[in-house]
Amino acid sequence: MSIRDRYAPSPTGLQHIGSVRTALFNYLFARSRGGKFVLRLEDTDQSRCEEQFVKNLYDTFAWLGFYWDEGPDLGGPAAPYVQSKRKEIYRKYALELIEKDQAYYCFCSAGRLDTIRQEREAAHSSQTGYDRHCRTIPQEEARHRADGGESCTIRLKIPLGEQGSPVTHYHDLLLGDIEWNNGDVNPDPVLLKSDGFPTYHLANVVDDHLMGITHVLRAQEWLSSTPLHVIMYRAFGWEHPEFCHLPMVMGTDGKKLSKRHGATSIDEFRNQGYLSEALVNYVALLGASYEEGKDVYSLGELAERFSLDKLNKAPAIFDYKKLEWYNGVYIRMKSDGELAELCLPYAVKAGLFGGPGREPDQEQRQTFKRAMPLIRERLVYLTEAASKLGYLFSEPALPPADEFIPKKTDLATATDLLRQVRDLVKPLAEAESDAEAEARIKDYAETNGIKPGDLLMPLRVAITGTRVSPPLFGSLRILGAEQALARTDRALTFLSSQP
Ligand code: GLU
Ligand code: ZN
Question: Could you tell me how far CA 228 lies from the centroid of its own chain?
């Protein structure tokens, strides 16, 4: 059987960890089985859907780097893939269910439904949902009223037994056999609203059928809708797709992942300087386990390994620390050129090249790339390049004189050390490698009975403006002898002028 699965978001919010996990698992499942992965926009709730969220959906997946095979933007054999363009189809199928006596017209006004709710509340009744008031209207009469233009909805007739209510069974690929007492299923939910729009349930079932979807992998929050969907498939006389409800995603406190735990929208992670590969790799492991002792997987490796028996029943815990670790891992896999390209937009935004939004010129671009080896090992987020490398693009402010003074020494000593090391600045800046620079410093320090660290500390502060900076030798080589000397002299003048 050729597999077809889908991601069916409603564009009512930003793409977030949970929704992307659903999309990714569907993508991986289709890839692992040589099937097709479909995107369908479920935008029938027009009051909640917004164009900006559709744009966010496309932006997010272009960035994440895995994509559907068929969808609104790509087209495909089951087009259109946008539910608001399929209104007529749903209407036709809702009427078909009436023909089959599996659905009926409901003429209840919003006011009447409201009254029932209020009465139940007042009586502290546990009953919820529709009271099936119109279920017994004779079909002919109902059709006559509907044809006459009376405002109405179409409701599904949940099968109820003469005595006791029947049970709906189905098999979930992860959770196993599931049974629902029909009496506990949403009582005769609306399929087609009075404005002609379908509800989620009708559109979802009709589309999964018409689009040939074989597997529905979706979030567990939809579990309670599934018996209803199964009932609907049977009412149509269709076979239902396989269902698989994915494990929940929780915060470390065991509560459903939400804003309280930290970032959840993909945009936020992106703005914080995460790599898409890190995010994809981490999200792929939310609720699935592959090999012992292996954490890092490319998309291709994941697609090769994915199968439903790798899914866990237990909820997945979203661990921000682990994601951070992945980010470092992927940062370190990048070449200088790649890493510079990735960091660049953040550095431009932060104003590294002469003010927020200013693009680098050719020389700055070159410098930026050359500086990547200085920060790669300690970079956690792509955003950090700007703050770590500021001193390479503009002269840093001079810190207070105290900063220049090595431990257990004084201002005079620090000034003297800097004066001595000044003579080494040119050879250090022109050294071929760190090793060569290091040998020079060691040599000088030994000959003169100075600790190498004491020699380098004032120089580091003179060059970078701080005691904690990226590696000094590399920085000197990037700045060049002339600039490095100018900064050393500036610091010397400053220190000498101290009272
Ligand atoms: N439109 C639903 C959502 O937003 C789809 C659920 C499903 O996959 O059936 O999640
Ligand atoms: Zn009614």
Answer: 30
Q: What backbone phi and psi angles, to 5 degrees, belong to 324? A: -60, -40
Instruction: Report the distance separating Cα 353 and Cα 351, nearest Å.
Output: 6
Distance 16 CA to ligand 1 centre (A): 14
Instruction: Give the Cα separation of 308 and 298 in Å (integer).
Output: 18
Domain 86-246 has CATH 3.40.50.620: yes
Q: Among 27, 202, 218, 242, which is best to mutate for testing ligand 1, by the most ligand atoms less than 8 A from CB?
A: 218
Domains 86-246 and 259-332 share a fold: no
**Ligand closest in space to the Cα of 116:** 2
Q: Which atom of ligand 1 is nearest to the CA of 10?
A: 4
Rounded-to-integer distance, Cα 82 and Cα 59, Å? 17
Do you know the residue count of the chain? Answer: 499
Q: To the nearest 10°, the Cα dihedral for 314, 315, 319, 324? A: 90
Looking at residue 296, what is its pLDDT? Answer: 97
Task: Supply the pLDDT for residue 386.
Answer: 96
Of 266, 460, 273, 263, residue with least CA distance to 385: 273
Q: Which atom of ligand 1 is nearest to the CA of 12?
A: 4
pLDDT given for residue 161 in this prediction = 83
Backbone angles phi, psi at 316, to 5 degrees: -90, 145
How many C-beta atoms lie closer than 10 Å to residue 423's C-beta? 10
- Residue 34 main-chain phi, psi, to 5 deg: 65, 30
pLDDT in tens, 454-485: 999 999 999 999 999 999 999 999 999 999 99
Q: How far is the CA of 277 from the centre of ligand 1 (A)?
A: 25
At 156 the pLDDT is 98
Helices (H) and strands (E) in the chain, counts: 19, 11
CA–centroid distance, residue 41 to ligand 2 (Å): 30
Question: How many CB atoms neighbour CB 67 within 10 A?
Answer: 15
Domain locations along the chain:
86-246, 259-332, 336-393, 401-496
Active-site residue flag, 259? yes
Task: State residue 263 phi and psi, 5-degree precision.
Answer: -60, 140
Catalytic residue among 259, 313, 322, 451: 259
Residue nearest to atom 10 of ligand 1 (CA): 9
CATH number of 401-496: 1.10.10.350
In which residue ranges of the chain is pLDDT below 50?
A: none
Query: Residue 188: nearest ligand to its CA?
Result: 2
Q: How far is the CA of 182 from the centre of ligand 2 (A)?
A: 19
Burial class (CB in 10 A: 0-12, 13-18, 19+), 317: middle
Residues within a 6 A CB radius of ligand 1: 8-10, 42, 204, 218, 222
